[in-house]
Amino acid sequence: MLTLKRPDDFHLHLRDGAALDSIVHYSARRFARAIIMPNLTPPVTRVSDALAYRERILAALGGDSFEPLMTLYLTDNTPADEIRAAAAHEHVHAVKYYPAGATTHSENGVMRLEHVYPLLEIMAETGLPLLVHGEVTDPAVDVFDREAVFIEQVLEPLRERLPELRLVLEHITTEQGVEYVKSCPRNQAATITPQHCLLNRNALFRDGMRPHHFCLPVLKAESHRQAVLNAAVSGDERFFLGTDSAPHARGRKECAHACAGIFSAPVALEVYAEIFEHCGALDKLQGFASEHGARFYGLPENTESITLKKAAWTVPDSLPYGDGEIIPFRAGEELTWTLTD
Ligand code: DOR
Ligand code: ZN
Questions:
Q1: Is 13 in the pocket of ligand 1 (CB under 6 A)?
Q2: Where are the domains of the chain?
């Protein structure tokens, strides 16, 4: 048996409408709270949008206990007053920076970071964290190098200019990402997904193309996977759990131009437990899953607990999603940890 303080997911895509209704309970079953990504269409750019989205999430929960921690989607046109209002609002916890064109629904993102420096200054003053999708979008840069180039070209100059800005480098995938965060004081941190701990880029091509292993930032070479895994299990409080569970209907994945995103919510906690156990680091799981992130965000630790037992179960081949279906991470595979009630 493994009992943990109830964990939180510091990077989650919940979508909206019928999709939201079909998936939110997988997260609520495992996690007490989650940082909710704002990349809807249209994106969540205003505090009022975030509050309305929060109400839709609460309605979809139908009474299940789960706290959505809302974020705003940063654009070149975000007004300074909106950032001040976000910083002051109890339900808004961060602002997400998508470089325009970097990933799913990022076309309204920031064209050049310099455009929003005045907004970042307000965030640095008020302590509102910036959540960063850390990839350059220059098509001339190799897709596997985009995180490392982003760190050098964007993050390092940003840290020089605004050292006090609180920042989370989301879903790190490279040794450079790990080293960058380790070189920062405690006001910078990173989330780590289950897939970037578990899989290297060979997983995209094993026995044919695997669209359900395609996410952004894309899986990297084995040496990078090992660096990310070591950071996750290290006990360093700058690294914490963020699944980046990002659902797309089966037909949007199994097609030409497959969408990026891995739907891990139905298995995430169980998979992290397997990963930490495999590394002989189960004693570090509670810090990673339930303590480090809450501390970074200045949230109280959860008082309830969750228990997993060592019992095998097979992940379903597919799950209902709106009026269609979705393929979860590890579909059809056996997992060794099971949630207890
Ligand atoms: O793989 C991804 N999917 N990466 C992202 O940054 C966005 C996400 C999504 O929203 O589907
Ligand atoms: Zn994401």
A1: yes
A2: 2-339
pLDDT at 312 over 80: yes
pLDDT value, residue 318: 98
Q: How far is the CA of 243 from the centre of ligand 1 (A)?
A: 11
Indicate if ligand 1 lies below 6 Å from the C-beta of 193: no
What are the backbone angles phi and psi of residue 83, rounded to the nearest 5°? -70, -40
- pLDDT given at position 101: 82
Whether 323 is catalytic is: no
Among the bound ligands, the one closest to the CA of 263? 1
The closest-lying atom of ligand 1 relative to the alpha carbon of residue 98 is 6
For residue 104 and ligand 1, the question of a CB distance below 6 A is answered with: yes
Cα gap 196→199, rounded to integer Å: 6
Sequence-separated (6 or more) residues with CB below 8 Å from residue 107? 100, 101
Domain at 2-339, CATH homologous superfamily: Metal-dependent hydrolases (3.20.20.140)
Q: Hey, which residues does 262 pair with through a beta bridge?
A: 245
262-310: pLDDT as tens digits: 999 999 999 999 999 999 999 999 999 999 999 999 999 999 999 999 9
Q: What is the pLDDT of residues 79-129, one digit of tens each?
A: 999 999 999 999 999 999 999 887 777 788 888 888 899 999 999 999 999
pTM: 0.98
Contacts of 167 (CB under 8 A, 6+ apart): 129, 130, 131, 132, 155, 158, 187, 188, 189
